[in-house]
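--- STAGE predict ---
source: upstream dedup step, 1 unique chain passed
mode: sequence only
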Amino acid sequence: QVQLVESGGGLVQAGGSLRLSCAASGRTISTYAMAWFRQAPGKDREFVAAITYNGGGTYYADSVKGRFTISRDNAKNTVYLQMHSLKPEDTAVYYCAAGSNIGLTIRMDALHARGQGTLVTVTS
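--- STAGE serialize ---
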C-alpha cells in the first residue's frame, strides 16, 4: 500500500510562488495516476491538477490553468505542484492522491491513497 506525505506549504504573498511535493513510500507510484486537490475553509474539496502514470498527460482545473504545473519523478517516487502567481483564493489545504485511472482520480473516485495535506496561505 502506498503512503503519501505532502510538504512545501506555507505563507506567501499574492503573486508569489510555492512548490509542493508529495513523497510516496510503501510502493512505487509509477503505475498510478496522481492528483492534487485542495480544500479551503468552509468549502468542499476541489480538483486542482492531475498527471497520468507516465507523465504523458496533465489536467488542470480552470482556476489554476496557466499558473500551476504538475509533474512527477517516478525514480524519486515524488509528485510536484509548482504554483506561480498565487492568489488569496488559492489559500487551502492541498492534498495529493493516487489512483489507478486518470478519469476516476480527477473525480476523486476510487482513490488508492491520499496524504494528510499541507497548508498554503496566500496573503493579499
